[in-house]
Amino acid sequence: MKRWIPMLLPGLLLAGCEIMPPAPSPTDRIEVIDREVEPAETRPAPEEPREIPSGRVARQVAFPAAEYASLEKTGSAVISGQLTIGGRAVPNAGVSVAPVTTYSAEAAEKALAGIAVEPADPRAREYTHTTRTDGNGRFRLTGLPAGEFYLSGAGPDPASGQARVVIRQVQLRSGQQLETDLSR
Asked: Which of 155, 108, 158 is nearest to 128 (CA)?
């Protein structure tokens, strides 16, 4: 066998090996940033452009799913009363009870300022209870959970004919029967 083959063999074997960089010294600082990535099914979907009905403004507060998740949808409390505007009962008007949240607070604030916001997110409507007044402006809402709520109604002002909104903040306990009037 030729002399150069034994010398060439270790060279060929080592040719495929990579030289490893030196280990960091104890004075070198290594920073590890751990980023948690949400699985696709829990990541919020990108917001699609939404169509806002004419005469309404876009909501500035996004639907707070976590805030609503802690709320009950039904319960045993009852609210009844009468909706009056300008001293007159408002027949066949919508009355609603919605939990006080950052999302509903924005809508209530704008409504009291005479500004209509875009319709609520369907998930928020699951927590809102609605009814209509009778011929004497009386209403009754049942099956309400305990908590803090906005009680609201709307109707025409008898003096001007303009639509007016009445909002009252109420606190309910489980099983409570609250009699309250909505008047403006």
From this structure: 108
Residue 89 included in any domain:
yes
d(CA 184, CA 86): 6
In-domain check, residue 158: yes
pLDDT digit string, tens, across residues 133-184: 999 999 999 999 999 999 999 999 888 988 899 999 999 999 999 999 999 8
Residues counted in the chain: 184
Q: How far is CA 62 from CA 107, 113, 121, 153, in A?
A: 12, 20, 9, 24
To 5 degrees, how large is the angle CA 52–CA 58–CA 60? Answer: 155
With respect to residue 49, please indicate whether it lies within any of the assigned structural domains.
no
Asked if the structure places residue 17 within a domain, the reply is: no
The rounded distance, in Å, linking the Cα atoms of 14 and 44 is: 52
Domain of residue 149: give its range.
74-101+125-183
